[in-house]
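1st attempt posting a full record on here, be nice pls
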Amino acid sequence: MSSVFTGITWLTSLLPWLLLAYVASRPLTEARASGSLELLLSTPLPAEQIIHAHWMGLWRQLRGPVYVSSVLIGLILLFGVAAALTSGAPFEQMTFVVLQVLGCVSRVVTGVAVGRMGLYLGLKASSMFAAVGLNLFYTVIIVWLVNTTASILVASTFSTAANGAATQLIVNFLLSSLAIAYAVFLIHWSRQRLLTQFRSLAAQTAGRTM
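the predicted structure (as tokens):
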């Protein structure tokens, strides 16, 4: 029964990323399927401007949750520091606060990465299903697999509760930091790949119209 609830919890946590990946991939996937993308590429608009317009359209849907999350991160940090300074164990409290803030930042940056990857994969993938699936794999599932593997290794390697807890804190800090760095990498990588793909398609469209 516990495995069933674990699966339901995991699927529930995956649902927002699934919806975001779909929303991000949909415009370019539909534009490519309808032929309007080829019409757009035949205009004198530069690839950078087209990409920026698509991103701004997506950002208008994302900025509300991102702004709210940023405010919540600030409040968590503010009240967490205040609680740590007034507690009898400030180091442990501050460690907990830092991990919570890193986790929140990781989710926000991952959301931006899902949006950026969605634009690129909407243009590159063979179908909407493939775009959403690849997006989730690169942005969410890989990170989840790394986190799960690291947690299992820590639990199996350190038998004592004290050593295990201290090591788990360090591992969580490193994993959250790596998740943020990985998401930032995906943001920049997908943007460059999208720009390259747009330029290539624009060149092919221009060659057919000559």
